Protein: cytokinin dehydrogenase
Organism: Dorcoceras hygrometricum
Amino acid sequence: MVTKFLLTFAICRLIVTVGLAVYPTEILRSGDLEGHLSMDPSDVVSVSRDFGGLSSAEPMAVLYPASSRDVARLVRSSYESARVFGVSARGHGHSINGQAMTGNGVVIQMSGHRKAAPPPRVSERLMYVDVWGGELWIDVLRSTLEYGLAPKSWTDYLYLSVGGTISNAGISGQAFNHGPQISNVHELEVVTGKGELVTCSEDQNRELYHAVLGGLGQFGIITRARIALERAPQKVRWIRVLYSNFSAFTEDQEFLISLHRQPEALKFDYVEGFVIVDEGLINNWRSSFFSPRNPVISSLHADGGVLYCLEIAKNYHQSNALAIDQEVEALLKKLKYIPGTEFTTDLPYVDFLDRVHKAELKLRAKNLWDVPHPWLNLFVPKSRIADLDEGVFKGILGNKTSGPILIYPMNKSKWDERNSVVTPNESVFYLVAFLRSALDNGDETQTLKFLENQNQQILRFCEDRDIQVKQYLPHYTTQQEWMRHFGDKWELFSRRKMEFDPRNILANGQAIFKPYF
Ligand code: FAD
């Protein structure tokens, strides 16, 4: 009774404050929310920021849903009212530019409170897991490992929500072989912008299914995802080797990812890489290998050149431990890295997948995690990747980066063109990720202003040279820019919006469609 009163009170306050023509009785008539709608300032503030730390927007309220029905009820109450309000799903809030925020609306906090989440349900026979949209990947991994199974495609960092990464793509070093995470989703349960709860897959409601995969939250809120699994390896041989020659580095990366075409061929399970422009503290945040005392690295750096690190990994089972040495050696023999620069470690599969979290803990201990992150992620066509080396790594960046620069190629054939995400028009394209942290430490080249300005310079460089990059985790502020981003896909994207969220209620923090409120 008391709960009911508080809930009615909270919704009434929402209406009075925003002036929204929502009738709480309409929401309540179909049954009370099972979860909790909060206007508590501390809840509101907690969803008004994100990992990027570059913007903030306070919603009127935060919904902590107890079920997908709660999500549907809230969206429907906006859709059916005379004046709509925005609804944004928020996973773990690890966006950079306020993508999960909404001003004057309601944020649905999908992650971080157990009440909403039915526990992951594994089908061993059909090799999939059904998970709540707000589930974090680390928890998906833990649940599936109980059955000796694991998802096939990952992100480098596991404290991200399923709904958040598959609204983008979800990529890591396995993507060359298994495709991005969105290529490994069998089925979704989605609340559309009309408040309808719909199951979609390749076989039913196909248009919605492809719209939502990589759809930047524009077409529906993912409440459940069915994710493909494989037998989980037990251990990983994790290797890094260095190059001073960029074309040798990219040729080797491209050779390694081309092996996906030969199912029986010996290959690495993970292929990534990064550019070493400087050896600052933050540049080492993901490193378990490098040490400033390492003689090879120091002498190589004495030349003042840029280095490239190929990062590869081979999964194995304990029972196969004897063969792993030979397999890795056979693969390494085919590569052209600088002799003597192999760094190798063996570790449990979970520790490998969860490697970035360890770095996070170290940065947190130094108060270097909760700082602004002006990240820039680009998909670059293979034919122009050398231009980025010349013009950006060896040019615009000088010898300071304020964070790691990831670089690795992927096969376009592993991406389903019917999904919403856009990639360059070549069979192989690279991710180049400038993962910088801005610091206020007196060094002008590490300030937010300097780094944001450098991002603009990089984008301008690509534009001037007609390098057809696509932003990954894109951020634009005008519809013109979004139209350019989607190119030929814009018409499809906007048609899907009309169909699944005609009142522009969802995820307006992406600033793609103008909200009607
Ligand atoms: P949020 O920031 O909460 O939301 C992102 C967008 O998705 C918003 O528009 C939101 O409205 C929408 N959304 C959230 N949940 C749902 C849902 N259930 N249904 C529909 N829409 C929803 N990405 C990679 O691909 N590979 C990486 O290796 C990688 N590493 C990262 C490492 C770090 C440290 C960080 C901070 C980010 C990394 N990312 C990586 C980027 C990350 O995948 C995206 O930022 C992702 O959106 C974060 O998930 P989240 O749960 O925090 O999403």
